[in-house]
Specification:
Elements: H1 2-29, H2 39-62, H3 71-97, H4 102-122
Helix pairs in contact: 1-4, 2-3
Length: 127
């Protein structure tokens, strides 16, 4: 009987550690909440888009008179939208990075413990 209790405790600890690791990963995996996308967020994303579009338009004005555009110039023009998406994505990742990790780790640990408890409770052993 003593060995079974230690096994259950070990299983619970392992489950809590795994759940905590998953919770920490959820910090980055979950999308930003509406509270995180506040007025400052919208202002910065607007600034990123505005500056990128202004740079593209300035570049287009500079090469407007060229009879033929090089492959690099065409690639730059086509990649501007992709650059905007990457810049906004990088900003989103920076916001996720400054999220406090403790709530995610604790929630993951509790979920792991509950999963372990439910698993051990409903397990039927057949000898």
């Amino acid at each position: 009987m003593q060995k079974v209790e230690q096994s259950n405790l070990g299983h619970g600890i392992k489950s809590a550690i795994i759940g905590s690791a998953i919770g920490y990963g959820a910090k980055y995996a979950l999308p930003l909440t509406s509270q995180e996308m506040d007025a400052d967020y919208r202002r910065i994303v607007f600034t990123i888009k505005r500056n990128s579009i202004e740079a593209k338009n300035k570049f287009l004005e500079e090469i407007k008179g060229f009879p033929e555009k090089s492959l690099a110039q065409d690639a730059y023009i086509k990649s501007t939208e992709s650059m905007i998406k990457h810049k906004v994505c990088a900003y989103n990742h920076a916001l996720k990075k400054i999220r406090p990790a403790l709530p995610f780790v604790v929630a993951g640990g509790i979920a792991g413990l509950l999963t372990s408890f439910v698993s051990k409770t409903f397990r039927t052993e057949v000898n």
